[in-house]
């Protein structure tokens, strides 16, 4: 059963961190401190009260920023590097007793999973920001937070289920990202052509003296 707990923590934690790094760190740290889950010895730092407080503080900031149109995309842009790198570092640290090669492999795996879930979130938010109303951002943010909370619950209580679901999420996300990127290209191409035609019309009016 220990191997399933480790795989569930590895996959589920990486995926959740790509969506909300600080909530994931705080959740796993609290779970470890309350002895709801056995964290790898080298990840005991997550259970440190100072780390939990900092993680909760940053989560609070993200909780607000993530619900404001365009601010959420700016926040995601900054975290394009932070989330995968932090997740890679945690994966590397967790495997400190397994040798350098295994550490590097796990760091690459966890970072890749985190990057994929992050890109899925960021791309979705970019599509949502194409609409003028702000309500969708809040709904999407709350849904993401609930999904991360649910993932953390499964990691703690049902690691096998967490492993299966995260694997499905990863596969579906590749298809989803492809569709969203195509959609964004169409939106930006349309906006670019519209702006070009408007500029061309203004120039023509100036030349004709209108």
Overall structural class, as computed from helix and strand content, comes to mainly alpha
Determine the strand fraction and express it as a percent band: under 5%
Number of strands: 0
Major sheet summary line: none
| Count of domain modules | 1
- Roughly how many Å is the radius of gyration? 21 Å
Distance between the termini: 78 Å
Helix and strand pattern: HHHHHHH
**Average of the residue pLDDT scores:** 84
Number of distinct helices? 7
How would you characterize the overall build of this protein?
With 210 residues, this protein is mainly α. It has one domain (2-208). The protein is built from seven helices and no strands. It has helices at residues 2-19, 21-33, 49-65, 71-94, 100-128, 135-157, 159-208. The longest helix has 50 residues, at 159-208. It starts with a helix and ends with a helix. It holds the Pfam family DUF4126. Keywords: Membrane, Transmembrane, Transmembrane helix. The chain crosses the membrane at residues 7-25, 45-65, 152-177. It comes from Candidatus Scalindua japonica. This is DUF4126 domain-containing protein.
